[in-house]
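Budget justification aside, the reviewers requested a transparent look at the raw inputs and outputs of the sequence design task funded under Objective 1. We therefore reproduce one unedited record. The lines immediately below are the structure tokens for a 259-residue chain.
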């Protein structure tokens, strides 16, 4: 059993959803970013999505877009972020870690080279934000040859037929985007979320997690009742660099994940 499978199995045994924290790597700088990720893990994050800053982040809302721009201006890049990831992995061998990136950054680095490096470091997989189903074999092949999960995205705009094709032979987990739009904290979850998730979970051979808009313990609990995992990004980025608030946020989110 691989690390991601073990995490979801443990969460099921504890009757809770997995807590997945998105961190914008390198924001506001690499050293502080590394500390913030440690804070998230030490306070209850099961999986870290290691966000790679990109100059044209079309899926990101104001919080993560601004954080990514600051990270780039302060020298963050894929090479030094991977060095950071290696240090984090050594300190936290049981935590899931997924590289969360736009395809251009990975393609420029080299897909085979990247997958080999992630396997060497001990990361669990890749989520390529802007990689469509029709083009994903170019990344799926090296991922599989290096034992990595390629995490797909499904949205409210995805038809059941297309969703079935997207998730049919996937490993790791499926990321369901809760809204039609960009990332960012929201006051409430869409009323149709539970029904949409029911359909996706029936199609998926692996756990289904939900992201975009989750910012509180209450929202996390709403999602945890109908999903296998809860993803929080903008709210964590907003709380970062203040150890008390960041730690408290993650602890509260973890409580919200209890069913």
């Amino acid at each position: 059993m691989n690390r991601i499978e073990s995490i979801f199995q443990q969460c099921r045994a504890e009757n809770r959803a997995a807590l997945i924290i998105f961190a914008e790597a390198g924001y506001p700088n690499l050293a502080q970013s590394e500390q913030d990720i440690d804070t998230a893990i030490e306070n209850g994050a099961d999986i870290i999505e290691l966000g790679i800053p990109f100059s044209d982040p079309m899926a990101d809302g104001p919080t993560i877009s601004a954080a990514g721009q600051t990270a780039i201006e302060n020298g963050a890049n894929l090479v030094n972020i991977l060095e950071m990831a290696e240090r984090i992995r050594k300190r936290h061998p049981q935590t899931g870690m997924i590289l969360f990136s736009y395809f251009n950054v990975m393609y420029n680095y080299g897909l085979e080279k990247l997958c080999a490096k992630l396997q060497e470091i001990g990361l669990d997989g890749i989520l390529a934000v802007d990689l469509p189903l029709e083009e994903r074999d170019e990344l799926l092949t090296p991922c599989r040859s290096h034992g990595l999960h390629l995490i797909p995205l499904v949205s409210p705009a995805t038809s059941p037929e297309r969703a079935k094709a997207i998730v049919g032979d996937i490993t790791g987990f499926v990321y369901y985007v809760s809204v039609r739009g960009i990332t960012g904290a929201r006051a409430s979850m869409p009323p149709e979320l539970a029904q949409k998730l029911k359909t996706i979970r029936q199609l998926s051979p692996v756990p289904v997690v939900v992201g975009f808009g989750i910012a509180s313990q209450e929202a996390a609990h709403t999602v945890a009742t109908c999903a296998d995992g809860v993803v929080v990004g903008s709210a964590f980025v907003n709380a970062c660099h203040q150890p008390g608030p960041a730690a408290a946020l993650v602890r509260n989110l973890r409580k919200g994940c209890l069913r």
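The mean pLDDT is 93. The chain has twelve helices and nine strands. Computational costs for records of this kind are itemized in the attached budget.
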